[in-house]
From TrEMBL:
Belongs to the class-I aminoacyl-tRNA synthetase family. It is found in: Cytoplasm, Cytosol. This is Arginine--tRNA ligase, cytoplasmic. The lineage of its organism: Eukaryota, Metazoa, Chordata, Tunicata, Appendicularia. Gene3D superfamilies: Arginyl tRNA synthetase N-terminal domain (3.30.1360.70), HUPs (3.40.50.620), Isoleucyl-tRNA Synthetase, Domain 1 (1.10.730.10).
């Protein structure tokens, strides 16, 4: 019985998440008009309602995310107030800065419920709906007060005592992540994934940066995260690369070939392939030999992979990307036969002009599973990889951080895999987290002045140079040691490159601009890292005047208040941490974390300008301990957020 309820609860969660992402997906704003989407939404609502009716009574689920807790409280209240309404999840949002005087959060479900009641023939004004909802709010320690505004909005004011306790806890324990939902669950994140023997380009940089922070996010909440580098290390192009390698480096199996420029090597091979008949023939033979594991040819292939790997690793080392495990396309070679056999057995493949294709439900273009001549494709290897990740690795969540250009490919693969029974969407969350292309400041494809692809190492070098120049401009070499200067330049350069990417909605194209990303006055890592050093230095003001123990005692007892509106605002922003991260896990969008960090830093500045840590009263100094606690809580959540973004913080800069 318990297990059944759990499963239903999970189904509701999943459906709600699907619904939320349909409704909140910014790109689908116009598409909302789209009747297909509307239908989907109403079907989802119905499905949720059905699950709900089997699952009574609803229970309040309080969590570290204040928003999620409020949603739960209101959801329960609505179910209690209107047991016959086919139930929806309460719509609660934090109020915008302009509306803050009307409340901290707002629930606007009353109108919708009144509409649903009206459809069912019952007339009741939204404001009366709101009253009834409020009568049914379960007792809790979160809400201080509520008001009904306008046509039936419910404004929620947060309880200060609750906030004080949570801030005190942050001071004493640091950020705590609720791991109850992640226990024993695995997340597979496929990211970076460059191609062997080709230059790793800015697209792979995006994938690396975004993928790494998605992986960090799930890991923070206790999931077992597998970071998979699905490198393109297989395919017919290796035939020609191997032929060229054998000609140029006959001792390839003894010494790592010194190919300094793989791009050039690739181009040379291609040219010979196109021009020389004999070379072409050898290239084809190599493909066959590679597939049949001919030892010498296999070694040549490995040598080429090794050269690439060394190049990739340079980028990973500099960006401090760790834990990324290479499981490339070649890994699935021997597993593809079995998958194709299964598909054939289930009669899912269609013979079409020499090749085997597979139609996936709802998708106009079929997958090519077997090429004319028997070879496999990118579709085949991804179907196989998905099957492996679900059924061998036992992943519960699969995430593919790959450019939006491959959106159709992933829709095909996911739909086909589900049709083939490789996974059940009710059990396994499988998502393509796509991202847009990188543009230069001229809004054209990102290239060097001479039109070449930008080498990532060069790009990173330039970042370091610019960050260093900036530090010199600010005269920092007078304060910092040589090592501190180097650390600062590294952290600022890589931090800024990462942050600039992460702060824009990944689905959009993104303009790469060093000037913007390094601007110490803008919403950049440079600015935020600097803010963090300031926040951390607050303690210095009271050095020798109060001990950490005394501070933590006050934090524990909750004997401080948030009387000044700037203190209150800062506390409220700090406490949105888990709400923001919970949404990020739902949407796989990182930019709201950056927006929140910027808000947090602004809230801190406003607080710090007006709320003095030491106040003079009748000629006596009074230490405002609550303010110290607020500053330390700010630093804790900010550091935690930087960690998730994969950005190293500094003590001095
Ligand atoms: N499972 C995957 N298909 N992952 C992404 C691979 C990306 C591919 N190597 C590329 O550079 O475009």
């Amino acid at each position: 019985m318990e297990a059944k309820i759990n499963k239903q609860a999970q189904t509701i969660d999943r459906l709600s998440a699907e619904l939320d992402s349909l409704v909140s997906n910014p790109q689908s704003e116009e598409a909302k008009e789209n009747s297909k989407l509307k239908y989907q939404i109403s079907q989802l609502q119905k499905a949720i309602a059905e699950e709900r009716t089997n699952l009574k009574p609803l229970e309040v689920e309080m969590s570290a995310s204040i928003l999620d807790s409020l949603v739960s409280l209101f959801t329960v209240a609505i179910a209690g107030a209107f047991p016959n309404v086919p139930f929806i999840k309460a719509a609660v949002n934090p109020t915008s800065p302009k509306q803050e005087k009307f409340g901290d959060y707002q629930c606007n479900s009353s109108m919708q419920i009144a509409g649903m009641l009206k459809d069912a023939g019952e007339k009741i004004a939204p404001r009366d709906v709101a009253k009834k909802i409020l009568d049914n709010i379960p007792s809790n320690n979160l809400i201080k007060e509520t008001t009904i505004a306008g046509p039936g909005f419910i404004n929620v004011f947060m309880c200060q005592k609750y906030m004080v306790n949570r801030i005190g806890e942050l001071n004493n324990l640091g950020v705590q992540y609720d791991k109850s939902k992640s226990r024993g669950r695995k997340v597979v994140v496929d990211y970076s994934s460059p191609n062997i023997a080709k230059e790793m380009h800015v697209g792979h940089l995006r994938s690396t940066i975004i993928g790494d922070s998605i992986a960090n996010l799930f890991e923070a909440y206790g999931y077992e995260v597998l970071r998979i580098n699905h490198v393109g290390d297989w395919g017919t192009q290796f035939g020609m690369l191997i032929a060229h390698l054998i000609d140029l480096f006959p001792d390839y199996d003894k010494n790592v070939p010194r190919i300094s420029d793989l791009q050039k090597f690739y181009k040379e091979s291609k040219k010979r392939f196109d021009d020389e008949e004999d070379f072409k023939k050898r290239a084809y033979e190599n493909v066959v030999k590679l597939q049949s594991h001919d030892p010498a040819i296999h070694k040549a292939w490995q040598a080429i992979c090794e050269v690439s790997r060394i190049e990739f690793q340079k980028v990973y080392d500099r960006l401090q990307i760790t834990g990324l495990k290479e499981v490339g396309e070649s890994f699935y070679q021997d597993k593809m036969n079995a998958v194709v056999d299964q598909l054939k057995k289930r009669d899912l493949l269609e013979f079409d002009d020499g090749r085997y294709i597979m139609w996936a439900p709802g998708i106009e273009i079929p997958l090519t599973v077997v090429k004319t001549g028997g070879g496999y494709t990118y579709d085949t290897s991804d179907l196989t990889a998905l099957n492996y990740r679900v059924n061998e690795i036992k992943g519960d969540i699969l995430i593919y951080v790959v450019d939006c250009g491959q959106e159709l490919h992933f829709r095909q693969v996911f739909a086909a895999a589900s049709k083939a029974g490789f996974y059940d969407a009710a059990q396994t969350r499988v998502e393509h987290a796509g991202f847009g292309v990188v543009l230069g400041e001229d809004k054209k494809k990102f290239k060097t002045r001479s039109g070449e692809t930008v080498r990532l190492v060069d790009l990173l070098d330039e970042g370091i140079k610019r960050a260093n120049d900036q530090l010199l401009e600010r005269g920092r070499e007078k304060e910092l040691t040589a090592q501190e200067m180097k650390d600062a330049a590294d952290a600022v350069a890589y931090g800024c490159i990462k942050y600039a990417d992460l702060k824009s909605n990944r689905k959009n194209d993104y303009v790469f601009s060093f000037d913007q990303m390094l601007d110490i006055r803008g919403n950049t890592a440079a600015y935020l890292l600097y803010q963090l050093t300031r926040i951390r230095s607050v303690n210095r003001k009271v050095e020798g005047k109060i001990t950490d123990e005394e501070i933590s005692k006050i934090a524990t007892s909750g004997q401080f208040d948030l009387a000044d509106p700037r203190e209150f605002k800062l506390a409220k922003t700090i406490l949105r941490f888990h709400e923001i991260l919970s949404q990020a896990q739902r949407d796989l969008l990182i930019h709201p974390i950056c927006e929140w960090m910027y808000d947090l830093s602004n809230a801190f500045s406003q607080f710090y300008d007006k709320c003095y840590i030491i106040e003079k009263k009748d000629g006596k100094e009074e230490i405002k301990v609550g303010r110290l606690i607020l500053a330390s809580a700010t630093a804790s959540v900010m550091e935690a957020a930087f960690k998730i973004l994969g950005i190293r913080t500094l003590h001095k800069m």
